[in-house]
Amino acid sequence: MNQEYEHEVPSDSAEEEAEATRRDAGDAESSRASRGWWDRNADEYQNDHGSFLGDDRFVWGPEGLEEAEAGLLGPPASLKGLDVLEIGAGAAQCSRWLAAQGARPVALDLSHRQLQHALRIGGDVPLVEADAGDLPFKDGSFDLACSAYGAVPFVADPVKVFREVRRVLRPGGRWVFSVTHPIRWAFPDEPGPEGLSIAASYFDRTPYVEQDEQGRAVYVEHHRTIGDRVRDVVAGGFRLLDLVEPEWPEWNSQEWGGWSPLRGNLIPGTAIFVCERTE
Ligand SMILES: C[S@@+](CC[C@H](N)C(=O)[O-])C[C@H]1O[C@@H](n2cnc3c(N)ncnc32)[C@H](O)[C@@H]1O
């Protein structure tokens, strides 16, 4: 086990005191909240979801769709020798799968603790601690970029992220990312029947914020409608090739937060945007 991993993350009462609200949250505040939240919650996240994710599988979301089956980055055999950037990589499970196909992945995440889990699991994927909105790479460094629920749902300015991804991609490179399906915003985030009735406007883009007693955000999620996401992709310098809405498979009986077989059979839970860099 990696030495550094054995260090305890200082416990923080931020979440215990957190109040959930809806209010604006800018770029810097959202990033700061995400870094803190993922540092405090990485252990629990990996403990709860690590076995479903697998150490070296590429899973696009709670439905369990795997890249090995979906081929959204291209057929697995075509990945050999390609430079791939994984954004919001967490413990770098997807990057390990990419490396096993012969690709050269780099796993980037904002959270130090998530990357410590990547070290704990092991493998020789390069890890980079950085914000998706400010990528520390030269122009044209990668053939492909991908993200399974990493960064995009949590940033205030997704176009800024997409422009950065475009900059570090080579012409024609693919950018494939998954996010919570926008329709879920209108429903309570509950796996049971209470999660089946519309409770909020799909069109209300006011971010979901959990804040501490001083009013500082400790968790932020940003909502974009499907139309917003398409416009963001185009504004970022990409064309949209496909929008995949994985259906809930029969084999998957696992609940993951508000994602469940009950809801998954009725409404989509994940949206995967398959984009290509314009020249
Ligand atoms: C839901 S997890 C997904 C991690 C991994 N892809 C998986 O499937 O387990 C979201 C990840 O995005 C990272 N993240 C959030 N905001 C980010 C940002 N602005 N830049 C880079 N990473 C970010 C978090 O630290 C976290 O590891």
Structural class: alpha/beta
The proportion of residues in beta strands is 15-25%
Note the total helix count: 8
CATH class: Alpha Beta
Pattern of helices and strands: HEHHEHEHEEHEEEHEHE
State the share of residues found in helices, binned by percent: 25-40%
Strand tally, please? 10
* Integer-rounded radius of gyration: 18 Å
Bound molecules: S-adenosylmethionine
Strand order of the largest sheet: 4-3-2-5-6-10-9
Q: How widely separated are the two ends?
A: 44 Å
Instruction: Could you tell me the CATH topology label.
Output: Rossmann fold
Structural shape: globular
The tally of structural domains comes to 1
- Low-confidence segments, given as residue ranges, are 1-11
Q: Please identify which CATH superfamily we are dealing with.
A: Vaccinia Virus protein VP39
Q: From the 3D coordinates, which CATH architecture would you assign?
A: 3-Layer(aba) Sandwich
Major β-sheet annotation: 7 strands, mixed
Mean pLDDT: 94
